[in-house]
Design brief:
Elements (H helix, E strand, L loop, with lengths): L2 H13 L9 E4 L5 E4 L6 E5 L2 E4 L3 E4 L5 E5 L2 E3 L2 H15 L5 H10 L9 H17 L10 H9 L16 H9 L9 H19 L8 H9 L10
Antiparallel strand pairs: 1-2, 2-3, 3-4, 5-6, 6-7
Helix pairs in contact: 1-2, 3-4, 3-5, 4-5, 6-7, 7-8
């Protein structure tokens, strides 16, 4: 990577105001170990075999071909670091919530429709643990409950998504286009309605006001009267 690009990325990264608990950037070091850069201090740390040490000054190559330059104990932000932190700033500005809150919404429902399930109880425990850790002065964004929430989000067997959602606008569109028993599930309109439902759910999971109609929800409301999404018979 050109030095000019490194300098530009460094200057740009210094101009953005990061969320108080923005996630650290990390990548695998070529030759072994994982490099993590704190978004607030820009201090890089090398983790290896259960231990850790500050990453020394120099140019370090990552497994993906990128490089991390360290000067006076501080990392010069490269393009991937800047992009990662900028996306977090954008998410914060758009009023999005953190991963554990999204996890609870997925498992328990947007209006607690599945609050009685064991999976919901466990999801809430992880969310509370995440909140407690974030309130602690020794909060470590690399080793906290949010990482457990991230893994649990992928475990559909232990943590099945709540299928009840009385507040969804796209849900009725799916029922209309696909049929109450799914008898029209092969129809193009059914596939389109399901895609809209998925987008609506993603928007609501990330929003600080999940019960407020989303942009996709508005599209579904309009689509309910469109000929393309005519009721399945």
């Amino acid at each position: 990577m050109h030095i000019q690009c490194l300098l530009i990325c460094g200057l740009l990264a210094c101009t953005i105001s990061l969320p108080a608990h923005a996630d650290a950037w990390q990548s695998n070091l070529k030759g072994g170990g994982t490099v993590r850069v704190d978004p607030q201090t820009r201090k890089p740390t090398l983790y290896y075999n259960g231990g850790s040490t500050p990453l020394w000054d120099g140019v370090h190559e990552m497994e993906d071909g990128s490089v991390v330059t360290v000067r006076d104990g501080v990392a010069v932000p490269n393009e991937t670091m800047y992009r990662s932190w900028s996306e977090q700033v954008a998410a914060e500005a758009q009023g999005q919530v953190n991963l554990c809150e999204r996890f609870v919404r997925k498992i328990c429902g947007f209006q607690e429709e599945c609050s009685g399930s064991r999976a919901c109880e466990l999801a809430r425990q992880l969310r509370q643990l995440d909140r407690d850790e974030r309130a602690d002065a020794a909060y470590d964004p690399l080793h906290n409950a949010s990482q457990e929430c991230r893994q649990a989000m992928l475990d559909a067997t232990s943590f099945p998504a709540c299928e009840k959602d009385v507040g969804s606008i796209c849900g009725p569109l799916v029922t209309q286009a696909c049929g109450g028993q799914g008898q029209c599930q092969a129809a193009p309109a059914c596939d389109a309605a399901r895609q809209l439902l998925k987008l609506e759910q993603e928007e609501r999971m990330g929003s600080k006001e999940p019960l407020v109609e989303t942009e996709t929800g508005k599209q579904c409301r309009d689509a309910l009267g469109a000929p393309f999404f005519a009721a399945c018979h």
